[in-house]
Structures are given as C-alpha cells and as structure tokens.
Design a protein that fits this description.
CATH superfamily of the largest domain: Lipoprotein localisation LolA/LolB/LppX
Number of strands: 19
Strand content: 25-35%
Number of helices: 7
Number of domains: 2
CATH architecture of the largest domain: Clam
Distance between the termini: 36 Å
Order of helices and strands: HHEHEEEEEEHHEEEEEEEEHEEEEH
Radius of gyration: 21 Å
Structural class: alpha+beta
Largest sheet: 13 strands, mixed
CATH topology of the largest domain: outer membrane lipoprotein receptor (LolB), chain A
Length: 395
C-alpha cells in the first residue's frame, strides 16, 4: 500500500501522488538515467515512480506558491472573486497565491491561503473539518463520517480515515505540489511518454525531474514536469506547459519545506472572537448529498460523464435548469441557480460554434477548452475544441 492510500488527507492539504496510477499501465517509460549531479545518484523514470510509491511521510510543513495563467477571461459570476493576492479560496483559478501547509498524519492537515488583507484556512483534525475566512469573519464546521471495523476488513486497507469525499474543496485546481502530481500522474496511459530530465533545486533541496509528455493529438498539454525530492521522494514542484506558450500555464511549488512533524496545536482551531460559526450539513457517507441542492443522483441521466481516457478525457455534464421560484430565497439552491443563470448569460458573449453535435458557445484557454451547448450541456477538457466536439459526438 502506498503512502497516499495510507494518508488520504494528503490529497488536499499536503503533497501527494496516487501511486496506484504510477507503476505499470503500459506507459512508455524510457530507461533514461537522471543525471547524477547535485549529489544525487542516477535514477531511471521507473525507479523514481517506485520511490514515490514507497515514500513514508510522517510530517511536513512549508510554504507553497501557486501560479496560474490558464487563459481565462474575467468571469462575472457568483463565486469568481478575488485574484492575485486575494485570500478568497475561489481566487485560486488565476494569478499568484501563497499558501502555508501542515501535515501530521492521515487525520491532521491544514492549508492556509494568505492574502494581502487576510487569510482563509481549511483545517482537518480527526473527524472535524473547519473552513475559516478571516476577511468575512466566518467559520463553517463539518463532521466527517468514520469508517467502521467492517469497512476496514472489507477493503483490507490499513487505517480508518474518514471519507475524503466529504471534505469541502474550494476549487478543482491543486493547492500543493503533491495534489498537482496526483492529477498529472493519474493521467498516465500507454500514450504517455515518461522520462527524466536531470535534477533541479527546489526550496533549497535537490530533486529529480520527471517529465510526462502526452501523445494524444487533441491534448493542449505539451508536458508536465514533476520535481521529486531526492531523499524524501515526495513532489516539491509541478509545472504544466501548454503547446501554445513557452512559460508554464500552471505551477505549484514549495518555496520552503520542513519534513519534521508539526505541533498538534497547528490543527486545533478555536474561532476568533466575532466569528460567525455555521454547522455544515452532516455527510452520511460516500456519495451523500445536501438535500437542499437539486443534484443528480448516482446512475441518473443527469450525472456527469467522462468521455475518453488520460490526457484526452473530456467531462460532459447537463446543467440543471434554474428554479425561478427560488430566485429570491437565501437557500443554497437559489445561490446555485443564480450562478448558473449568470454563467449562461456570460456564455452568450463567447464565440458561437456548431457541428453535427448541435451548437453552443466556446471558451478556449491555453490549457483547456470549455463549451456550453444551446441545449444546456457543459463540456470541459484539457483538449482542443475538436476534442470537445468529438466527445459530444460520442456521448
């Protein structure tokens, strides 16, 4: 069992890689030796993947810098707030941001997004998860469900960490090098070329560089470079390069890192005076949903589907129809309806496209394409527009 299966909290607060997707799978892993400079012994790409799988991380803290330039236009919709220097969790989709992270085991992790006027934190301590925003003086508390002994015996996995699907996530963009590496390495397929590219220095530490190059013709990603610590074997930096630009369109990296176990006090959250505390909806277990949200149920026609595999995969989802009767209420459903209505209004400003699949409006970024069809489907992928059209034709 890999470090990331033993410690699922690494997915959202500390560097992590899903090692199951790293080894095997028919990937084109060249037997190229990493250059033995910076005092590191030579390692092949395959050896580096095994190193990551077998890493044993007891604790970590550090400062992470994330930079995003995905070619996104300004989105005048609810929730698309902030920007460079913002402490709003929704601002991570663009600009440059600084975060502090702490990890002390599978059930103790914390991420703090630092802004010029405050900070936002996501804190996991046992079954308790807190989401705190200093600017708005608000804190939301969630309680995660515990896995029982029967679940443990059924899966055969060590540890009884609460299900991570219940953890609130501010954005799909990675907030640590390991989270970014997990997403990139999970895309390894037989059409991925995996090589090494010597060594690098990240956060003052010597690291190997692993290079992933998609072979899919429709992929907008030219390569992903993962810097892996030479002694601890965890990712220190991930850079994503698009085919259309020379500089990274996305980068997340440690600027400082310490592999000692943080003090338990880092995970004990006490709301500051004047903070409004809200109890989040209790999650009954994997797949549980908020009853106030009109979300599609598993197996229903409204559930999102993924067309294709690896770098060429495309997400196709049906947008729910806004409920006009709930527009003036303060419910979560009303907020979602407002966001959807604003998104559809914004889409009309984008270029109009059409094909055998129908018609809609296209937003093309440097590393992704998104399409909102006139019949209410949203199609997104790190592929060319032609890749989106092909996915629609196949759906």
């Amino acid at each position: 069992m890999s470090i990331f299966e033993r410690n699922p909290a690494l997915r959202w607060a500390v560097p992590a890689v899903t090692a199951v997707a790293l080894v095997g799978g028919g990937s084109a892993i060249r037997g190229v030796q990493a250059i033995a400079d910076a005092g590191l012994p030579a390692r092949t790409a395959a050896q580096l993947l095994v190193d990551v799988q077998q890493a044993n991380l007891d604790g970590l803290s550090g400062t992470v810098v994330q930079r995003s330039d995905l070619g996104l236009p300004d989105l005048p919709i609810a929730g698309a707030a902030g920007g460079t220097g913002s402490s709003d969790l929704t601002s991570l989709v663009s600009g440059s941001h600084t975060m502090r992270i702490w990890f002390a085991g599978p059930d103790k992790a914390r991420m703090a997004l630092l802004g010029t006027l405050g900070e936002s934190d996501v804190i996991r301590n046992g079954q308790d998860v807190w989401v705190w925003a200093s600017k708005g003086k608000t804190a939301t508390h969630y309680v995660l469900p515990a896995h029982d002994a029967e679940d443990k015996s059924a899966t055969g996995k060590s540890g009884t960490s609460p299900d991570q699907s219940a953890v609130p996530t501010p954005t799909d963009l990675p907030t640590s090098p390991q989270d970014a590496a997990e997403k990139a390495l999970a895309a390894i397929t037989p059409s991925t070329e995996v090589t090494t590219s010597g060594t690098a220095t990240v956060a003052g530490r010597s690291a190997y560089e692993l290079v992933l190059k998609p072979k899919e013709a429709t992929s907008l990603v030219a390569q992903v470079r993962v810097a892996i610590d030479g002694t601890e074997h965890v990712p220190l930096r991930v850079q994503v390069f698009a085919k259309s630009v020379a500089d990274p369109v996305f980068e997340v990296a440690f600027s400082a890192v310490d592999f000692s176990r943080p003090d338990a006090a880092q995970f004990a959250f006490n709301p500051p005076p004047g903070t409004t505390v809200v109890e989040g909806k209790a999650m009954a277990g994997p797949g549980a949903t908020d009853p106030t949200v009109n979300a599609p149920q598993p197996g229903s026609a409204g559930m999102p589907t993924v067309i294709g595999k690896g770098w060429g995969s495309v997400l196709v989802a049906k947008l729910p129809v806004p409920d006009a009767s709930a527009a003036t209420s303060g419910s979560t459903s009303a907020t979602n309806d407002k966001t959807i209505a604003q998104l559809m209004k914004f889409a009309t400003l984008l270029p109009k496209v059409s094909g055998s699949w129908g018609s809609g409006h296209l937003m093309a970024g440097t590393a992704f394409s998104a399409l909102l069809t006139d019949d209410g489907r949203i199609v997104v992928g790190a592929v060319t527009p032609e890749g989106l059209y092909a996915a629609l034709a196949a759906s």
